Amino acid sequence: MISYLEFEKPVAALEARIAELRQTAAGGDVDLASEIRRLEAKSADLLAATYKALTPWQKTQVARHPMRPHFVDYVAQAFTDFMPLGGDRNFGDDQAIIGGFAKLGNRRVMLIGHEKGNDTQTRLKHNFGMGKPEGYRKAIRLMDMAGRFGLPVVTLVDTSGAFPGLEAEERGQAEAIARSTEACLGLPVPMVAAIVGEGGSGGAVALASAERVLMMEHAVYSVISPEGCASILWRTNEKAADAAEAMKVTAQDLLGLGVIDRIVKEPVGGAHRNPELAAKSLASAIGEELDLLGKLSSQQLKAKREDRFLRIGEG
User: Fold this and answer.
1) Higher-scoring residue by pLDDT: 19, 26
2) Secondary-structure percent of the chain, ordered helix, strand, coil, rounded to 5
3) Mind listing the pLDDT tens digit for each residue in 68-90?
């Protein structure tokens, strides 16, 4: 059952009415087929119009939708033969960042990404996708392994930011994020990063410093959350919508600024309405990018990475 966001209430009302009519029609006493079809068409048109005109703050809400597919969902629907590899060989295994060998079509890749969880138990297990130093050091280890084995790296970014707790700072959070970013930039193999939900702060950049950065149509990517920005600039979270507008957090804005390279279209109504189709679109886009990057040498890949980040914001 779909969980509706505040701005989707008109759609929710129509779909509730359709459900009522179907239940009535199931009794067999009244033929309501034509009325149901009319309301279904009206609901579909309203949903499409609503999502075509989303504000940056509404897109932020969609990116955070509790039913939105996360790393494990994309692994199940877009990749095969996933073999998870755990631990940073130093402190422990961070479940907020998962990685391992996988296959995308016939291509073997190193797949790394944030996992938020989809219910209370799994969200706690994965720390809501907020990576700790050992998570980023695990990512570094896996990227190094990919380089030695000649495997392209694919990252799926979905985090509100790196974990800000005291224990993370004590274990060197900033250093781990910086090292992970450095590992991305120095990879001798192709790397494609995809922002699939939230791309928050350095916790996202540490897995997204690739030569090709993709972004789902209704994902967001920013240096700080809209609420965090609002609390700093206006001393109130109530200005979060204004902050989202000012920060240019949407895929459409970031494509124009050169921060990302490609937008991956989502099903009408967001990826959570059809995760399988969303995963198929993402897999296709990543495959196309890897096909192009596979033609470049190690030196060309590194130069391409350096050039794309130096050019951000020029336009």
Assistant:
1) 19
2) 55, 15, 30
3) 999 999 999 999 999 999 999 99
Residue 241 and residue 158: Cα distance in Å, rounded?
20
Structurally, what CATH architecture does the domain formed by 60-310 represent? Alpha-Beta Complex (3.90)
Element (H, E) at 64: none
Return d(Cα 78, Cα 70) in angstroms, integer.
12
Mean pLDDT for 107-127 is 95
Neighbours of 262 (CB within 10 A): 16
- Residue 218 sits at φ, ψ, to 5 deg, of -110, 20
CA distance 149 to 90: 22
Select from 227, 251, 221, 262 the least CA-distant residue to 241. 227
Q: With contact defined as beta carbons under 8 Å apart, do 159 and 177 qualify?
A: no
Cα–Cα distances (Å) from 209 to 8, 131, 154, in that order, read 34, 16, 11
Tokens of 31: 């033929």
In this structure, the chain runs to a length of 315
How wide is the angle at C-alpha 287 spanned by C-alphas 285 and 288, nearest 5°?
A: 65
To 5 degrees, how large is the angle CA 269–CA 125–CA 223?
A: 55
Task: Count CA atoms within 13 Å of residue 75 on its CB side.
Answer: 21
